[in-house]
């Protein structure tokens, strides 16, 4: 009977410690990512939206870049790890992306 009680006690301790460890790991992953909305002026076609999003997603630390509707000012929701990449680096990539009509022309500006 003592053996069964000891076995149950060890089993409970094992389950409790495992669930606490997983809870801490999930919290750390959630805290390390940041989501920002970046407004960009100068976008003239829908291909520009796709090119900017693709270039931003190439950055190490960026997990997603989703564009909104095209207009005089378009917005992008960027989810990234601020330890690996800064907002200024993301801005730089956006502003250095060439337009679909003329890849050498750098027409995009971040609206602050």
TrEMBL record:
Organism expressing this protein natively: Flavobacterium zhoui
Q: What is the lineage of its organism?
A: Bacteria, Pseudomonadati, Bacteroidota, Flavobacteriia, Flavobacteriales
Signal peptide range equals 1-23
Task: Identify the keywords attached in UniProt to this record, alphabetized.
Answer: Signal
Q: Which named protein is this?
A: Heavy-metal-associated domain-containing protein
> InterPro entries recorded for this chain?
HMA_dom, HMA_dom_sf
Answer whether the UniProt record assigns the keyword Signal to this protein: yes
């Amino acid at each position: 009977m003592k053996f069964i009680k000891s076995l149950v006690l060890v089993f409970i301790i094992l389950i409790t410690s495992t669930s606490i460890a997983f809870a801490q790991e999930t919290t750390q992953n959630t805290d390390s990512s940041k989501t920002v909305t970046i407004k960009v002026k100068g976008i003239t076609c829908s291909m520009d939206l796709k090119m900017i999003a693709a270039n931003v997603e190439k950055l190490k630390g960026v997990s997603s870049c989703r564009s909104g509707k095209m207009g005089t000012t378009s917005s992008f929701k960027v989810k990234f790890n601020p330890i690996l990449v800064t907002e200024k680096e993301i801005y730089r990539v956006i502003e250095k992306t060439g337009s679909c009509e003329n890849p050498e022309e750098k027409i995009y500006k971040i609206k602050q």
